[in-house]
Design goal:
Radius of gyration: 17 Å
Shape: globular
Number of strands: 15
Strand content: 35-45%
Helix content: 10-25%
Bound molecules: flavin-adenine dinucleotide, FE2/S2 (inorganic) cluster
Length: 230
């Protein structure tokens, strides 16, 4: 159990929850989160948005029942957290770009905070949120609202590119990576549906070049050329 320190609305349908506890999460890892007893049955996976001496933060979008319930929770109430889970982002070598689309910007904040150099590309569909927080890290930030943020990134200018966002964006990143000169190591962070989060149920199974893998325990971060996206 982790007690909620704050749970604030930062844009329409977007919240930041800060939950107390001592965790040692790596950027790109996630927690299975629940704020209810028995229904909905499954906990929901949320990436680590930030971590401080008080606890862990989640930046989340209300998508359905589970996240709606989380958004109604108040400071002082308890959430159940399982994690940190997943592999997280690998060590970034050389010039690095962090590219997020929609709520896919969430894991990039903590990643950016731990990199000496990184260019951030953040794409939003309607409303920009957490801009001040991202800019306060001190890295260059490019924001796109309503367009295709990936189009603004020259993969050939980077050694490492991390991409997190909706599946069409990840597919576009795969194509862009394949068409580039091939210098950059490109990684995508998947947001497959999950049930157990710990590699036990196969709900998150994803096709990869060497057979099927589990997005929760083998990922959620994969090399772009490794995964087969539907
Ligand atoms: C590793 C990982 C990290 C994630 N990190 C974040 C995060 O930091 N912030 C955040 O807001 N969300 C994140 N997500 C997505 C989040 O887990 C889902 O939005 C959430 O589980 C939806 O639960 P719900 O009960 O609100 O919606 P549900 O009632 O379960 O579903 C509502 C709608 O959303 C769709 N949906 C549900 N889950 C997903 C999914 N994983 N991908 C695409 N569509 C889905 C359903 O098909 C349905 O149409 C992450 C997912 C994964 C796997
Ligand atoms: S969610 Fe159960 S194996 Fe990945």
């Amino acid at each position: 159990m982790a007690t909620i320190i704050s749970n604030r609305r930062v844009a329409e349908g977007i919240y930041v929850m800060h939950a107390a506890g001592r965790f040692e999460a790596k950027a790109g890892q996630f927690f299975m989160v629940r704020g209810w007893e028995s229904y909905p049955l499954l906990s929901r996976p949320l990436s680590v948005y930030d971590q401080d001496e008080q606890g862990v933060k989640f930046l989340y979008k209300v998508a359905g029942e589970g996240t709606e319930l989380l958004s109604r929770m108040q400071a002082g109430e308890d959430v159940t957290l399982l994690g940190p889970l997943g592999n997280g982002f690998p060590a970034a070598a050389g010039r690095t770009a962090l590219v997020g689309g929609g709520i896919g910007v969430a894991p990039l904040f903590y990643a950016a905070r731990h990199l000496e150099q990184a260019d951030l590309y953040l794409g939003y569909s309607v409303e920009v949120y957490e801009e001040y927080e991202f800019r306060s890290i001190g890295h260059p930030v490019t924001i796109d609202c309503g367009g295709r943020v990936l189009d603004l990134v020259d993969f050939d200018a980077y050694d490492t590119v991390f991409v997190c966002g909706p599946e069409p964006m990840l597919r576009a990143a795969q194509i862009k990576s394949a068409m580039s000169a091939g210098k950059a190591a490109v990684y995508v962070s998947l947001e497959n549906r999950m049930a157990c989060g710990i590699g036990a149920c196969l709900v998150c199974s994803v096709g990869c070049e060497n057979g099927r893998k589990k997005a929760c325990s083998d990922g959620p971060v994969f090399r772009a050329e490794e995964v087969v996206l539907a």
